[in-house]
């Protein structure tokens, strides 16, 4: 397989990306096709659907070996589950699947067609292998159970973001950023109230601490991409 497109959004690194698609619906992104696939006919009729499936690559989580078990962060990083019972990026094949809201298929952009979506859980530049329409009668199962993933479905933090710092964020991105912070971007097994985290978002680094159920932003600086990024983009 080879990528047909890539995504453009405000996540230059993995840290802070929502753990599931649709978790933060305010997040906006664009899907840009590779030159070979920039054909408006390939998207004909897609605008008639409200949601689409993205099949993509965990391009920053490739490994030469795989493990049959992983430690889901939401279980504290200490409990092992079978890799096929999780959404872990560390899989035999580094393939991701996300359902996102389709807001527009634009034919008047420089790189048209361009697909505009909301609620994606992908890092900026992530390669996309395929796009398929979401079909409610076949894809929606209200009676389904979600095992341990259900435990955090309604979990959110209270966010305190000083107005003079929030002003550094473009107005059109503030709602999405606040929702990402409320969703608790920290690794689930880290709970040190004195620890300061740095989360890249757009061209800014958002610095915050979490005490109990409250996240407090204490600084916003310009983002400088480091040579080696990891989920431990944290600083004491």
TrEMBL record:
<dbReference type="Pfam" id="PF01980">
    <property type="entry name" value="TrmO_N"/>
</dbReference>
<dbReference type="InterPro" id="IPR036414">
    <property type="entry name" value="YaeB_N_sf"/>
</dbReference>
<keyword id="KW-0949">S-adenosyl-L-methionine</keyword>
<dbReference type="InterPro" id="IPR036413">
    <property type="entry name" value="YaeB-like_sf"/>
</dbReference>
<dbReference type="GO" id="GO:0032259">
    <property type="term" value="P:methylation"/>
</dbReference>
<dbReference type="InterPro" id="IPR023370">
    <property type="entry name" value="TrmO-like_N"/>
</dbReference>
<dbReference type="InterPro" id="IPR023368">
    <property type="entry name" value="UPF0066_cons_site"/>
</dbReference>
<comment type="similarity">
    <text>Belongs to the tRNA methyltransferase O family.</text>
</comment>
<keyword id="KW-0808">Transferase</keyword>
<dbReference type="Pfam" id="PF18389">
    <property type="entry name" value="TrmO_C"/>
</dbReference>
<dbReference type="InterPro" id="IPR040372">
    <property type="entry name" value="YaeB-like"/>
</dbReference>
<dbReference type="InterPro" id="IPR041369">
    <property type="entry name" value="TrmO_C"/>
</dbReference>
<protein>
    <submittedName>
        <fullName>tRNA (N6-threonylcarbamoyladenosine(37)-N6)-methyltransferase TrmO</fullName>
    </submittedName>
</protein>
<dbReference type="GO" id="GO:0008168">
    <property type="term" value="F:methyltransferase activity"/>
</dbReference>
<feature type="domain" description="TsaA-like">
    <location>
        <begin position="1"/>
        <end position="143"/>
    </location>
</feature>
<keyword id="KW-0489">Methyltransferase</keyword>
């Amino acid at each position: 397989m080879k990528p047909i497109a890539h995504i453009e959004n405000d996540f230059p690194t993995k840290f802070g990306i929502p753990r599931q698609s649709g978790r933060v619906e305010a997040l906006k992104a664009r899907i840009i096709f590779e030159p070979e696939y920039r054909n408006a006919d390939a998207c004909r009729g897609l605008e008639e659907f409200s949601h689409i499936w993205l099949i993509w690559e965990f391009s920053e989580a490739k490994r030469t070996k795989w493990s049959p078990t992983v430690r889901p962060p939401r279980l504290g990083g200490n409990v092992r589950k079978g890799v096929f019972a999780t959404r872990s990026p560390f899989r035999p094949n580094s393939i991701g699947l996300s359902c996102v809201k389709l807001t527009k298929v634009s034919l008047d952009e420089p790189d048209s067609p361009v697909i505009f979506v909301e609620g994606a859980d992908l890092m900026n530049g992530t390669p996309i292998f395929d796009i398929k329409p979401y079909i409610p009668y076949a894809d929606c199962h209200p009676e389904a159970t979600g095992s341990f993933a259900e435990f955090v479905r309604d979990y959110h933090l209270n966010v305190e973001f000083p107005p003079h710092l929030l002003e550094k964020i473009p107005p059109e991105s503030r709602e999405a950023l606040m929702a990402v912070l409320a969703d608790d971007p920290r690794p689930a097994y880290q709970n040190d109230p004195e620890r300061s985290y740095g989360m890249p978002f757009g061209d800014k680094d958002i610095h915050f601490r979490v005490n109990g159920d409250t996240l407090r932003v204490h600084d916003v600086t310009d983002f400088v991409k480091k040579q080696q990024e990891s989920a431990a983009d944290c600083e004491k």
